[in-house]
Model the fold of this input.
Amino acid sequence: MHIPDGYLGPATSGFFCLLMLPLWAAAARIVKKTLKARQVPLLAIGAAFSFVIMMFNVPIPGGSTGHAVGGVLVAILLGPWAAMIAITVALAVQALLFGDGGVTAIGANCFNMAVILPFVGYGVYRLVGAGASQDSRRRVVAAFVAGYVGINAAALLAGVEFGLQPLLHHTADGQALYCPYGLKVAVTAMVGEHVLVFGWVEAVVTAMVFKYLQRQAPELLGQDVRA
Amino acid sequence: MKTATKLWLALGALIVLSPAGLILPERFKSGSAWGEWGADEMERLVGYVPQGLKRLSEAWNAPMPDYALKGCQGKGLAHLSLAYILSAMAGVILIVLVVWLLGKILVKKSE
Done:
């Protein structure tokens, strides 16, 4: 889901970079108000966890690869605004140091994976887990569903961003200037592979770690950073 | 053991295991992630390399492209796996430093 440089035209790249600026500012403001010093190591572990989990490429035999993001888990533990900061740091390091995800596409990639993924995931978690205690089974189910829905929402958006390019930018003779695949192909591919495969990976990772923390470190649950 | 220690150890374990994310796609003959093809793959897929894509794809020259070490392309899977682990370590160290720095700036002084 890491859109590389060259797949998005300047209009799309620019739009998402501009869109991210107030979101990053809001995240900084909110996290400044609510994050406690003792939670900083957890934020660092969350960002590092998200980075490393994205290195576990899961193959579709003979097809493409994909991976979990781990961002929904960070959102459940520390809240979506803190997750946004953690995932942004991971994505920036991936783009700058490893060329994974474009530098020009950083705004779009952050909006997909550091905003939509944790916020949608967090919303679903709150909805499904509403009223259940932190140590309940329903919270584990909520984490599972949240991981699945969160990453699929991000994949859908990435598909739309890819798919808009041939409409926005093409030469006089119809050749695409950036991503050559239209909405139908791009959305089908991105959503399809995440609905069928990678969504389940995010769901299992989120639920498994959540269940482990319920048993081993219940003090980490229920301390999310909110305004 | 303190919870934080356990989590750091788990992170270390993930780093050591990370080459699975390199070896499994190789084993199952999987290609690139959708929409993350290089210029030559793009040419094979659609018959041409979009002009803007060709121009922008060189916008940034990453020091450790694709979690590998520069100048070591074409080396065996063992070599690539080691580079993958080193990349994971480098990435984690950098991320922890950045978050720690952000924490210094953002966190409430009163506690």
